[in-house]
Write a structure and sequence with these properties.
Elements: E1 11-15, H1 20-36, E2 41-47, E3 62-66, H2 68-72, H3 74-87, E4 91-94, H4 99-108, E5 112-116, E6 127-129, H5 141-148, H6 169-181, E7 189-194, H7 206-219, E8 222-227, H8 233-242, H9 245-248, H10 260-268, E9 272-276, H11 279-286, E10 291-294, H12 301-304, E11 313-316, H13 318-321, H14 331-336, H15 338-343, H16 351-361
Parallel strand pairs: 1-2, 1-4, 2-3, 4-5, 5-6, 7-8, 7-9, 9-10, 10-11
């Protein structure tokens, strides 16, 4: 009898309706629940676009999809909530904790419900966990906050805080074949560039990024890959054209994955990643690849500078160099002025950090 059909099995739902990085980091909740409750049914509610980062994860039994129609149509949303109620979950862990998930939890009928403590919403949950403001370790708040949602369960296991991606042998072989097709030099290490952020306010200025790529090419004899979607080719071309000719010779501009899974396999066959904070960086970390992250001025580094150790994972933020520009400004104001603040974040400020990172991780 399957887990989903068994009357006696414990049923758990984890909710994280957000972007790739969030879904990947929150998957550590599922991973640790599996260690604690090996026979439980563990399901995960996510946006459809993030499913590829969950493929192959043995700790998740069913991926429930929150689609655009569920946001646009009250009827479709209630149909989803009705479906979730019908599964009769024993435990729901809401890592998203926004209006959509609040309503799902309210209608779920679950016996136990855990989320972050938020004013006016505590009645929805049986356990309300304080929302930490400062990290206690180098894991970063993004990871520490997720792990805090497990604390009310008092799990008798050794907690594993590291997100994981699973790549098949076939996917790895296809990536290697793509490298061979594009004639990557086998005697070189390969660097992935997280070229563009998910929005303009999270994208390091293109002319500055070209200088970063030049720093890499000048410092090391490496193969360089650009991470971008075909629809972003205009911006990718701007960066490529702004690089020095000697750098361009090391860039394999047209070597792209056909979809997110093939991109994951490409990262898995690179040696490290450098560039904008976002999904690509988080995927690389989950594949245990060294990372150098450039944060947008409006993003809180303390949240997403995960696994920071000054060796394999390093990040830079304008606040590290010109803190007076950001002092006393709230997130909304920083986001509004992000493009202006980015101009103050010249790549020369952290050139030495990139050189150190390359030296430490390209031996």
């Amino acid at each position: 009898m399957s887990k989903i059909d068994s009357f006696f099995v414990m049923k758990i739902l984890v909710i994280q309706q957000k972007m790739i990085g969030d879904v990947l980091v929150s998957s550590i909740i599922c991973n640790n629940l599996r260690k604690a409750y090996p026979d439980a049914q563990i399901d995960y509610l996510v946006y459809e676009s993030t499913i590829p980062v969950l493929e192959g994860n043995p700790n998740i039994d069913n991926v429930l999809i929150f689609q655009e129609k569920h946001r646009k149509s009250k009827r479709e949303f209630l149909n989803l909530a009705h479906k979730i109620r019908g599964i009769k979950y024993d435990l729901i862990i809401d890592a998203y904790s926004k209006l959509e998930s609040w309503l799902i939890v309210l209608l779920s009928g679950a016996k136990r419900k855990i989320s972050y403590k938020k004013f006016g919403r505590t009645f929805l949950y049986t356990d309300n966990v304080p929302f930490a403001e400062f990290p206690k370790t180098n894991l970063g708040l993004a990871i520490e906050r997720r792990l805090s949602l497990l604390e009310p369960l008092d799990l008798k296991i050794e907690i594993d805080p590291f997100p994981k991606l699973y790549v098949t042998d076939t996917e790895n072989r296809d990536a290697i074949a793509l490298f061979k097709h594009h004639h990557l030099k086998k005697d070189r290490k390969t660097v992935m560039i997280s070229l563009l952020g998910s929005e303009n306010q999270k994208t390091y200025p293109l002319e500055y990024m070209a200088k970063v790529v030049d720093f890499i090419a000048d410092n090391q004899d490496v193969n360089i890959l650009f991470n971008y979607f075909p629809k972003q080719i205009k911006d990718a071309t701007i960066v490529f054209d702004a690089c020095k000719p000697s750098t361009q010779e090391k860039i394999y501009f047209n070597l792209l994955g056909s979809d997110l899974r093939s991109f994951i396999a490409l990262i898995n066959n690179c040696d490290l990643i450098i560039g904008n904070d976002g999904g690509a960086i988080n995927m690389a970390k989950a594949l245990e690849k060294p990372s150098f992250t450039i944060f947008s001025p409006w993003i809180e580094k303390k949240i997403w500078a995960t696994l920071e150790d000054g060796l394999h994972h390093i990040s830079v933020h304008l606040n590290d160099f010109k803190f007076q520009l950001l002092a006393s400004k709230k997130e909304k104001e920083l986001k509004k002025n992000a493009l202006f603040l980015y101009k103050e974040f010249e790549p020369e400020l952290f050139k030495d950090k990139i050189e150190l990172f390359l030296k430490q991780n390209l031996l």
